[in-house]
Amino acid sequence: MQARYKILEELGAGGAGAVYKAYDTQLDRYVAIKRLLSKEESDKGDSQSGNIKKEAASLATLQHPNVVSVFDLGSDEQGFFMVMELVEGDTLADWIGAAAMSLPDFNELATQTLEALVSAHSQSVLHRDLKPENIKVRRLPSGRLQVKVLDFGLARMSYGAKKMTEDQKGNILGSIYYMAPEQLNRKPLDGRTDLYSLGCVLYQALSGRRPFEADTVRGVMEAHLQHLVYPLSQIAPNIPQPVSDWVMWLFNLDASHRPTNAQQALNSLRGLAVAGWLSEGADSVQVAVAVPDEPVYRAPAPGVPRVSTGHIPPRPTGSVSQRITGTVPPRKPTGGVPPRRPTGSIPTPLPSPGRRPAKVEEDEEGGMNKKKMMIYAIGGGLLVVGALAFMFMGGDKPKPSAPGSSGPSIAGQAPGSPTSPEPPPRAANFIQPGVILHYRAGEKMDAYSEPNASVVAAKSGDRVLTWHDLSGAAGDGSLSAFGRQKQNCPLYLQETLSGLKFRTGLLRFEGTSGMVHTMALSNPSAKEYPLGGTQKDPGLTVVMLVRPNISDKDVRCLNIRNSEDKGHLSVRAYPNNEWKLGMKIGPTIKEAKVTGRPAKMFNLVGISWNANTSKMLLSIRTEDGGKGRAEADAPKEKADILNEIRISESNTSQPENLFKGDVVELMVWPYAMGWEERSGQEYRVVQEYFQKPGSRY
To answer: Is the entire prediction scored with pTM above 0.85?
Structure first.
C-alpha cells in the first residue's frame, strides 16, 4: 500500500476498523482507507475473514450519489484494507448538535438518505448502523444540502434474513441509541431495520434530542424494547403534524407497522413535500381528536413518564399515486382555518390500551381487509354446513386429491359457489414490473382438440394443449404440450383444498405430460429474455406455485435452459423434503439447497440469479406458513441466452427429468430482482392463496 497510498492521519476508529486519511499518488487525490483485518486475521482464511472480504467486495459494486464510493480493495504486510471516497463536510451529529434542522433541510436529509437505502436494499445490502455520525452533510454553493451515507462496514449481503452483525466475541455491533428492537433481540433483519434507525435519526434532527435515552445502556435497551418514547409532535410542536407522524411511522416497534420498504417511505415523503408540508412556514396543524380514558400521548413534562407507542396501528395504505395526489393533507392556507387532518395519509392517533384500533384497509402486500376477511369467514362457514348437509343427504363423499395432497378436494363445484369464495381481485401493483412470462391456471388456456378442429377454451376436466402467456411482453410466449400430442397434454382441474383460501385452478402433470415454450434466438424479443443483456441486473427471477407429486423419486419442477443446450437452471423436489436449485453452464455445476420444507404440499418457489454477481438464491414458502432460503455461488462462466421454459421433459428415457404434480401459477422476469422486491412478490402470492401465509421475512 505504501507504494501508492500515503497515510496522513487517523480519522477515527470503531468496531468495524480504523479509518485513515491518505493521499493516492497515482490518481492525485485524497482518499479514506479503512483497515478491516490485521495480517494475522487476513491470513487465517477462515469463514470470518472470508465473509468480511466478501462483504467489502459487494460494497464496491454499490454506486450511488448519496453513498460513499469504494475505489479499491487490497492487502499488504499489515492486513486487508478498503480504499474509499474521502467525503468533506460535517457529520449530521455536528449539525444537529448546534440546532434542530429546518423543514427544507430536513426534506433533503430524509430524501437523499432514503434514496441511498433504496439503492443499497435493491442490491440486498443492509447498513445496520445508521446514526448521525455515519451521515455526512455539507452545504452546496446553490444552498441545497448534499448528503452522503458513510460506513456500510457493518452491512452484509442479505439474500436471506440473518442474525444481526456481531463481533468475534458475540458482542452486538451498532449504536445503541438507534438500534431496532430486532437487533437487540438478535432476530432476523431486513430493510425495515434500517428504516427504524433512520426514524430515530430524523426524530433527533427535528427535535434536537434522541427518542430513546436513559442513564445506562440497559435503560436505553429497555426503552427500545418497550418503545417508551415521546411523540415528536410533543417534543417539537412547531413541526407539522403530518411530518411528525411520518417520522414516528418509520420506527414503530412492530416492523410490520413500519413502511414496507424504503421506496414506500420515500414515496410518502414526496407526497408530503408536494402538499407543501416540508417548506418554510408550514405551520403545525392543531387537530382535535377524541381523548381516550387514559391518554396515550403524554406531554413531556418533568416527572411524567413516557408511554409506549408500540401499538400504533398499521399505516392506512393505497397506491403510490393515491398517497401522493389524493391522501396527503394540503398545506394550511395562510390566514385561513386549518384544514381537518385527513384519515388516509399518515398513521392515526394511538388507541387507548385495550380499545380496538381504527379500521385498516387492504395493505400493499396483498393482505385482506376486515370486510374481505368476514366474507371469507362466512364462506368458510357455509362450506362446512354445505358439506355436512351433503353427506347427511346421502351424497357422494368428497373425492381425495392427488397423492401428496394437503387435504381433500371437492369435485363438481362451480367457481364462486357459496362453498368456494372467488379469488380476491388483485391490486394494480400485485405483479412486480417487468414480468416477461406469466401463466395462471384457468386463464387463456386452449383445450386439446383434433387437428383442424376449432380452438375452444379449456374447462375443468379438459386436457390443455396451449397455455398462453398473460403478460404479452415477448410476443407469443405460449407453453405448448410436447409435440402437440394428446398424451402429453396436462389435465386442467379446479379444486377446493384445505390449505388454500379459495377454489383454485391447476394443471396436473402426470409424468407423460409436459409443456415447453421456446423463443427463437432470431426473434428481436429474445434480447429481453434472461441474460439478454438489456437489463440493469441481467439474470432472471422466477415465482412458481407448485405441488409436486412425489413417491420414492425426486421430480424436476421447472427447467429454464438454452435451446441449444449450452446451459440450464432447474428446480428439483425430493422425497426427503429437500429442494435444490441447480445451474449448469459449460462444465460447471452449482447448487443451492433448502431442507425441511414439505415437498408434497403446495409450495411457492422463488428463484433469483444475478449474472453480474454470479449469485443465485432459492426460496421456498409452504402452505403451512413455513419458509426457507438458500444462497449459493452460480457458475461464473458467461451463459448464452436462456430462451426455453420447460415443465417436465419429452424424453421418457430420462425419468429423473419428468414432472408429476400440479402447477397453479408461474411468473418469470428477465432480470435479478432485488431482495425487497422479490420477497414482496413472493409474499403477495402466498397471501392470496395460502390460509397460513406465514410472515414476509
So the answer is: no
